[in-house]
Amino acid sequence: MGLADFLFNRRKHKNNNKITAEELFQQENISKKYYKSLDKNIKQIQELFEHSFDFTVDKIKLGDTDACVCYLGTMLSKDTLTNKVLNSLHPQNDHPKPKDINSIRDNYFPTVSYEYADTFHTVVWNVLNGYAVIMVDGQGKALSLEIGNIEKRAITEPSTQTIIRGPKEAFTEDINTNISLIRKRIRNPHLKFESFYVGRDTKTHLVIGYMSTITNADILEEVKKRIEKIDIGGVLDSGNIEELISDKSFTPFPLIFNTERPDSICGHIMEGKVALILDGSPFVLTVPSVLTDFFESSEDYYQPFLMSSFVRLIRYMSFMIALVLPSLYVALSTFHQELMPTQLLLSIQAQREGVPFPAVIEIFVMELTFEIMREAGVRMPRAVGQTVSIVGALVIGQAAVEAGLVSNVLVIIVAFTAIASFVSPIYNFSISTRLLRFILILFSAIFGLYGVLLFLIVMVIHLVSLRSFGVPYLAAVAPFNIKEQDDIFVRFPIWANRKRPSYLYPESPMKKKGKNIPSPPPARGGGK
Amino acid sequence: MSKKLVENISLWQLAVLMFTFEIGSVAVVGVGTDTKQDAWIAVGVATVLGAGLVWFYVYLLKQLPGRNLFEMITFCFGKWLGKIIGLLYVYYFLYISARVLRDFCELITSVIFENTPIEVISITMVGICAYMLYLGLEVFGRTGEVFIPYVFTFIILIGLAILFSGEFQMKNLLPILGDGLGPILKHVFPRLLTFPFGELVTFMVIIPYVSHFAKAAKVSVFTVLISGFIIIYGTVIEIASLGARQMERTVFPLLSAAREISLLEFIERVDLVIVFVVMFGIITKVSVFLFGGLKGLEHIMNIPYRYLVFPVSMIIGYIAIQISANNAEHIEEGIRFIPLYMHIPFQIIIPILMAPLLIWKVKKQKRRSDANGSR
Amino acid sequence: MLKNRMIRVVTFTFTMIFSGLLLMIALIDMFIWQQSFYQCVSKLFALDEGANEGYVIATAAAGFIYSIASDYRIRKKKRSQQS
């Protein structure tokens, strides 16, 4: 009912691409009418903002008409307010007598950006967004002046996805800054940003960015449809959005890509994906995403292609290591000793001799310990952070071995696995690896190597059944496409990469036409 | 009532499935062991014949584009007789899938994982197949695509590893055609033709869902030739490393051959690799047969096959154990009964009987629709 | 003809396939080992000492229960469609 109207009305305004305050406050018990009488309006708004210390109504006189300025003192910069608005309203300024609201704006605030509010909803919405609203007695609409300029965090280096070579900017919590970071990189009128508001209570600003000439229209339509379906009280981070719009929740694998690097987002937009930017979150999402996206860092494109191909293969390898190494150890040391080369077997067994636990328990305890230390390391206050490393490395690692509780080989395996699991450039993905690792250890403890194979096959079946916004999650590998292989496991030189990924069905599939292979100039004067 | 599946698989996926299907079982039990050192020649002959057989199957499918084996049978034999023949096919497919599953269970329990109960392996394997088929034909095709590079490279690498280990003795292949062509031909028909190649009759259920149906014939014949080539490769390796005598005695020749590998004194037991190849091959094979049976049931019972996936596959898990008391009995049945009384009627006789009926009926239908169109 | 029996179709299919395949195994055993029909059937249902046949029997039973459950589901779906 309420939601249906909400969606229906949203559709009606689709073309002008602007959400009006009416739609946002529809379900709430706020009266819509803006009165001509100033007193009624003041009463109305003061009732609404009751018990908010930062809400101010300044009563003033414009000539001989009553008027008032109302604003939320915490949502705008007081300096700007004084300079731009309050000063020019000062009675000493001898402006001609105002006739209507238009002439008031012309005379008093010719340089401030503004908006007229003809409903009470709009007034409230503008106040909430940091406008100073001037209401004049006897006028049918109010004048909202944009002040803005509240404090925000400066653009810093990315803290979760660091690279060596390449741009060092990261997104911040402010949506306008984030959009400008993208616009700065793609100067193209076809780069569109459409705005949505999500969350019944928080009314958070969500912007989708895409290239209208590249992105497939069906995918775009699907994204909009899913955003409009969102029905939730509050949205605080793009992680909430991710869970609400992804194709399937019951999977350990992330179906939506997130990053705080503007260059990486731009790369995705240029391939034909849609970016979702949420106000208040430095992590921007792109859809649709495929598995291989999570193994690509934007730095791959800034380093020589041979090097980045090698690094990419290392990433895939370390994914496999992080997944199966502990369980292989369990399976080989408990069930299939005969499969190990004799020398290796002897040295492993010699070390395990004094260990009182079976290999499963041993590795489970150590992996769990590592997870606890990792979690503690993340949550701990910075000042005591060093303690974790000392306690972890010395006490738990060395002491456990010396006390004969675990074997040396096992510590090596746990440590190597841990490091390998952090190689994926996107943190989300390493979470799924860690989760699956524990299940895999259990399987190998029950069924041995057969269990490992069993689990891997089930995992692959699960992976190929996944879809992200209609695109198969393993696209370019399964369904296999030979033409896409120039940017999957290895990266071909950038001049050879002429096509956008075909699994995204881009409107314009070619990035460029010619092949401009760099080559030395023809030798001068040599041959005649 | 039953919803039509709109799922499609690509030509490449079809080829992948056919390839793994072909080499799956062969990698477990080995073929042509009766013909001793000439086994590879027998396989070669069977490959060529098998390619012809597959071409014939696709030719039949081309008469009625978009209809699978069961719909074709109903079209040819009428509603009631068609349903009965279709049901016989369903039993045949399900029985063979249980047999294939048993092959694998025997391999696993007798050679590698001696301590695992055979029942557990049967249940888990059939569980995987059920899960995959429940997710649909598309997922099946894609899973094949993910694993095919490993399957292919592992098979090639095993051969090379045996070669470099110095276990490859050409003299084991001699004398070529020592006993003449007679025994080879006798072995090719019925056993070799029906066992890896004739079983492709199941693909008559899958090929109609290929997206570029027009090219299906070419691709399937080509795939059969390629997989025949790989089987020959495997057979040559087995003969050359084990010798004809020993090969006759071992139950799982490829595995025995792989145990000869010893490289750098480090890579010694590559059993796991073989098991992986075999496991995936078996999963494909069981799933293809299971899919054939389920599609048949869907057609006969008129309900979407997804409802039947779990119940029927659990039956398969049970039957695979009950099918015979022990491995010897299982193999005996496979040699004496199955090729003659099951493979030949279902793979060759019924399709051949169906061919003239089908062509005649299609012509009649076309004439009628032409007459309708001109009016 | 199946329309009136439609509501139990999965269970029906299950029993049909199950008994059909068992019969087939018994017949093949009869043919190969030249035993009587009774001998073969009793061999099928005999539980070997020490074997874990309980597992597969349990799975088959689970399949049977699943088929009853899915029949129930189909019927419920159909009823909700009609109303």
From TrEMBL, chain A:
Residues 518-528 have a biased composition (Pro residues). The lineage of its organism: Bacteria, Bacillati, Bacillota, Bacilli, Bacillales. It is found in: Cell membrane; Membrane. This is Spore germination protein. One of its GO terms (cellular component) is plasma membrane. The keyword Phosphoprotein does not apply. PANTHER family: LEUCINE ZIPPER PROTEIN 4 (PTHR22550:SF5), SPORE GERMINATION PROTEIN (PTHR22550). It is a multi-pass membrane protein. One of its GO terms (biological process) is spore germination. Keywords: Membrane, Transmembrane, Transmembrane helix.
Automatic annotation (TrEMBL), chain B:
It is found in: Membrane. Its main location: membrane. GO terms for cellular component: membrane. It is a multi-pass membrane protein. Keywords: Germination, Membrane, Transmembrane, Transmembrane helix, Transport. InterPro entries: Spore_GerAB. One of its GO terms (biological process) is spore germination. The chain crosses the membrane at residues 12-33, 39-60, 80-98, 118-135, 147-168, 188-210, 222-244, 272-293, 305-325, 337-360. Belongs to the amino acid-polyamine-organocation (APC) superfamily. Spore germination protein (SGP) (TC 2.A.3.9) family. This is Spore gernimation protein KC.
From TrEMBL, chain C:
The keyword Transmembrane applies. The chain crosses the membrane at residues 12-34, 54-74. It comes from the Bacteria. Keywords: Membrane, Transmembrane, Transmembrane helix. This is Uncharacterized protein.
